Amino acid sequence: MRRFYLTVLLLGCLLIVSPAARADGALHVAFSETFDVNGGTGGHDDAFSGSIASSKIGYDIDGWSGTAAVYGACRCLRFGNSGNDGSCTTPAIVLIGSARTATLTFSAAGWASGTNGLTVTANEGVTLTGNTSVTLENGTWKAYSVSITATTTNSIQLTFTGRRGFLDDVRVEETVTAIGAPSLPDDFLFWPNTTETATRPVTLIPPDSTTVYYTTDGSEPSKGNGQAATLTTGVGITGTTTVKAVACYGDVVSDVVSRTYGVGPTVSGIAAFCSLADGTEARLFLSDDANARVLHAVDGEVMFLRDNTGALCIDFNPETHPLPLPRGGVGGGYSHDQHVAGWIIGRKQTTDGLPKLVATANTTTDYLALAAPVTEPATEPTVVAADENGIVDLGDHIADWVTVSGARVGEDVQVDNRFGTENYTDAYDQALIDASAIVTASNTISPVGYNGIRPVVYVIDEDRDFCPPQADIEHATVRLKRTLGKDYWNTFVVPVSLPATALEGQYRQYAEADGNTMIFSEATGIEAGRPYLVKPDADVENPVLSDVTLSAAPAGSIEDGGYAFTAIYSPTLLKTDKTVMFLKTDGRLYYPSANGTRLKGMRAYFQVPKNGDARLLLDGGETMVLTLTNGERRIAGGEVYDLQGRRIHPSPLTSHPSPLTSHLSPLTSQPSTLNSQPSTLKKGLYIVNGKKMVIR
């Protein structure tokens, strides 16, 4: 069964000049007003003086206007009085002939004594010649004639103005030798939808007094061939159809006008639509499994979409094609991350490299369904990175929402120019940033603060130099390129203050030194620029800190008793003079290698007396020991046992226990002197102060 696509053709049969099919003329009465509905006195009852014709005026044809000082008389009207001119204007009179020439005739007479006159004028674009200004004789009816030429329009209006006179039998006639062809709508496309036949609104208004005949089978229309189009007739077409039409008045026939209408193309997926030639009108179909999502939207104006084939801007063009908001939108509108399915019609257009679906007269959102995501993952920007020359390849990301990761403001020039990051140089000069935006060929569109994602994110990278802001930045978003392991203590510093809930876990801060022991106490949060020991409850990888204040202050150092805990934001080459130690994930302190050790950023190191021992003591008795001196494995004072229970190193006792013994492990049966001489141990597994320790 052949599918039937119906459209209602708009036959706006406006006349255009075209040669007549016949030279013989046909008389067309374009206007005739007799005023016979008036039953007042004066005029045709031979009363031409005195107080007459004071009744309300009536017209055979509706639409007269400007009827000042005009009165109803006997089967005519009286205009003006002893002190004022009267005036009245006809309705629009349409000429159907291509020549747009006609003749106006009217009758007029004067009343009462004195000189009485009447003037006829017309609307702009119409020229009048002949009896356009006449002197009326009291008590005498005379006929007058005016030639009409409509130079720029086929619609005319005539205004009669005068004092102390009568008017009757206003008539406009034209001799039609040629008529314009009917004006069919421009070629258009129509589409079937899933539930009903495609249609178009009906606007079929043939010119006055003409009949339009049309065909849809390719044959030539005429009075004897085709169907007559009236005010209520639409044209049903099936598939691609050529409609031919002709206008007739009497024996005068216009030229034939022809238009072809067809079923528009349908493409599936954004990539297929973007591949169309500019100017192509098509229907974009988005299947549910295409996973199309809203990247950015301004209600009633534009909407950026991405599906699994590409990205596209839908330009609703609200000035010319205002549309209702789509059904199913959150809050009645468009929303970031909404899932999109269905279809929408529009014209493919490329602007600054940006592929667009631009709204046309066929565009509607009735069949475009939007719904908030339920099980799908959230839509995120596509991440791209600049190369070592600061060049970012965005050619495959036009119309897409992207994040350029780790760009250096002021150095990655292309990123500055495309993403407008030069506007951030006051606060972000030389900083590492993530810049997020919708990409065009030469610029970007930044939905500032959209969906909680800022267009510029400050980046602190453990492997790259850190450039602090010139002043504190409030309400910043900061991304850390740093991993914090849950199974060991991490040295950690950031230029941001955070509550303990920001990174769930344990926090320790350097409190004081007792001999060679650096004592760390519990901390309830993180202060910007201050170094900490952190052990999170779960591994933390590249966290993003939202709505924070980024401090311009440098990283700090905490000192006591000749020992210091020193923070660094940028990667740093540590000294090799035995005054610096760093903590590894095995819980040991190490000197840098002879060639120097590069400590990554957002960490801290320990400054100690040259060649001196050091150990860290944390609240709760956890002790991190070991100093490597001249390649020996040594341990500070304490009871040392092997796995067979034999004491390897007895701990000298003092008469007074150290005040620090309360911090030691509860497994230690006797307090140990912290200042005793270290003991050299071979490789192996030992029990030191009740704790297992591996010496490698």
The mean pLDDT is: 78
Radius of gyration: 47 Å
Taken from the alpha-carbon principal axes, the silhouette is elongated
Biggest beta-sheet profile:
7 strands, antiparallel
What is the structural class? Answer: mainly beta
Number of E-state strands: 59
Assess the beta-strand content as a share of residues. Answer: 35-45%
What percent of the residues sit in helical stretches (DSSP H or I)? under 10%
Poorly predicted runs? 1-23, 327-332, 448-452, 625-637, 651-679
Distance between the termini: 86 Å
Number of helices: 3
Report on this structure:
The chain has 696 residues and is mostly beta strands. It has three helices and 59 strands. Strands 1, 3, 4, 7, 9, 11 and 14 form a seven-stranded antiparallel sheet that branches. Strands 29, 30, 31, 32, 33, 34 and 43 form a seven-stranded mixed sheet that branches. The longest helix is centred in the middle third of the chain and has 7 residues, at 413-419. The chain is elongated.
What attributes does this structure have?
2% helix, elongated, mainly beta, disordered N terminus, seven-stranded mixed β-sheet, 3 helices, 696 residues, seven-stranded antiparallel β-sheet
